[in-house]
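User: Fold this; tokens only.

Assistant: Input:
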Amino acid sequence: MFVLAGPGAATPAREAPWLPEAAAYRLTLFLGNLEPVPWDEVATAWSEPYRGSEFTVGGLAWLGRESAVDTDRLEAAIAQQDRQAVFAEATRLIALRIEEELERAVTAQDPAAAQQAVRTGRELYRAFADGIAAADPEAARRIGIAWLELNSSTGFAGVLGAGATPSDTDTMMAARATISDYIAQNYLVEDFAPRQTLSTLPEIAALGDSNVEVPPALPPGSDIFDQDPLPLLVLNFEEQGIDETGLPLVAYGDMLFDSAQIFGGPARDLGIACSTCHNRSDVNQRLFIPGASHQPGAIDVDGAFFNPIFNDRRDDPIDIPSLRGLRFTGPYGRDGRFASLRDFTRNVIVNEFAGDEPTPFMLDALLAYMLEFDFLPNSMLTTDGRLTDAAPDAAWRGEVIFNTPFAGLGDRSCASCHIPDANFLDRQAYDIGSVTPAYAGARAGAMDTPTLLGTLYTAPYFHDGSLPTLGSVVDWFDETASLGLSEAERADLTAYLETVGAADAPYEAFDEENTAFRLAFSELTTFASTLDTLLPRRDAAHILLLTDTVAADLAADASTMANLAARPEIYALAERLVAVGAAVRDEDWAAAEESWSAFQSEARALEERAF
């Protein structure tokens, strides 16, 4: 069902593009495992290019142009919404396509055509590769070698081409047979009937082993990379000149916020952490997972994918909220259902992302860190919500409208809920008509009043991200509440909202030496500094959580370094933390202390070259 991903590192790896039919197949398996199945999206997976694809046509159109394989059975299964038939026919189709390309490779009349067919065949086989590797590692090894041999032998000439030697031909045919025989025996049998579940693949079921764990990964079109440009993180203690290494509880919470290890599968195995959605305490506006996101920057956290037992069977993705100023913005959750940030955080870990019960220390640390999140500085606004002389004239005119009561708002003003001297919120929830009732008389439409601070950078707006700009928010209220604003008044009110939601420096500033890696290196070594507190306490569980997280992220982030010469040293530094963890597992505390001391010395020496 999934592509291989890193083991819990919070730095995801980019994957190669997918061929249209292979992408449609992987999307079909992924979407077909959701409950309920989003059949419209399954059909779209075959009719349209996947999100971000380099191809301009979908799988069916591509097959019609490039292949003789019949797609009627698959299309009929999708139309009938027969999940098992769709799995079977989609798997059969990819198997036939692999066979088709293998035949083209061995009958090609020139090396270029033969090698192109081999490359295409290998790209198609990629759709099966991780399942075969999990179910039958020895077969995966043999097939991998066969592809290499096939590529090498077709480099001289096709089987029938002039210049092909008997040795070339024998190698080619033997390699082709290795792949073809496996495909025929496992995917093209008449009674092929995959037992597809969230934990198995069609290829595993075909092999008769439904207990094999396949490393999860996201389907084509997914994007869990950090927003670019990266939001600026403003922390209360840093603004006061306090070094995070002197705040071990906060530093450990900072590590947990970046750790995929606190979640369960599949989020943990995919490298999804709190910071994946909340880049630098703000919003990751590029995050997108097919079947769980209706648009970038949104996610359905109570669907079937992350935690089936928490599945509410509703297609209700929400726009990711900013966590800036978190200590001021309770209650928590888009609908304000959690009065306690601690309860909300536990719910995210255990229910939304299927993690184990966090220890009290973990929750203490996470809260200690998140409560340090501050709003972005804005020189056009005072701390009590008043405009300064730096604000534009339109914003001053808009402020008057913002504070004007309207009959359509129950004789209240915008400022009645977004109270300027209370960080532009009132800690209440209201049903403003932005949520379609689930049934007659439903009272589930109340949403928490959001702060307006920093909102210029968190588009789109409303709980479902249905409004693209602050201007469209003004238009929505003007129309739904019959405010009667003129075009000029709407423009002034929008200017006020944009001014309140602005910041002097909303994004991290990078240059040739102040790189993203240097920022990551500084953060990761700060995380590791909590070992000064944890090692003397012999706190094995929390030490191992830290070393497993930081070592994996340090090694993963090294690939982004501008200073290539220092990259091996970063890998070696990560191994020092691995050694700390190994010693702790063996209860060899002296060795753990020794490896930690070596890490500190090497990190100090590397600091100036870590960019």
